[in-house]
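Hi there, hope your week has been kind to you so far. Do you reckon you could talk me through the fold, stretch by stretch? I've dropped the whole record in just underneath, so have a look:
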Amino acid sequence: MNPTRNKRKKADRELLSDGLNKIKRFKIRLRKREILRILKFNPEHSVNTVQMEKHIQDCMESAYELLSPSVVYETFSSVSEKYGRIKEDIIAGSGKVRELFNNAVAFTVMAVTIGPGLEERINEIKDSDFTGAVILDAVGSEAVEQSANFASRIIKDEAAKQECYLSMRFSPGYGDWPIEASRRFLKYLDTSKIHVELSPEGTLIPRKSITAIQTWIPD
């Protein structure tokens, strides 16, 4: 087993200007069951099952050294003069996201990434080990999801101190919210602090990065 997996990392947390929070170098745990689900791997219908399961496990273990999870997030309260303007700008075009604001007293926007390391490794091996590249891509999807879960737990604790709970997490590209909404996120989040940017097409770079919103609802 890769010792990096069990080596406890101390997360670095900073409160930057204008209420922007940044956390980096935090520990995440990859869930093998989720990776198998993403890969649609079914041992009963797969050939060379033992070899494939070992390949998946080896890719998971090696991935930990390639991950550099980080997040920036900011919370906007309804008592702020800019609350309504920012809310309407971010959620434009999505009735589903608008529903999250029913009874909300605040909302948090976040950007999360696992860094470029895993993506670079995928590009290095995709010609010589296509299966490994596919597995690592699935690992990356799980890793960024777990990074977002980490951020949500932090925000959940902050909301609880204000006697609030969080809505579901919702990201551009899901439901009726266009992927282009990520561009509006970056007007209010300085994602350069975690080295995340937008491509000309409006997708996030590094590729295993996400933006999301959660609203605060009074208990």
About this structure: The longest strand covers residues 209-218. The helical segments are 3-6, 32-39, 49-63, 83-91, 95-100, 117-125, 130-161, 181-185. The beta strands are 12-15, 21-24, 70-77, 106-113, 164-166, 197-198, 204-205, 209-218. The domain at 3-218 is CATH 3.40.109.40 (NADH Oxidase).
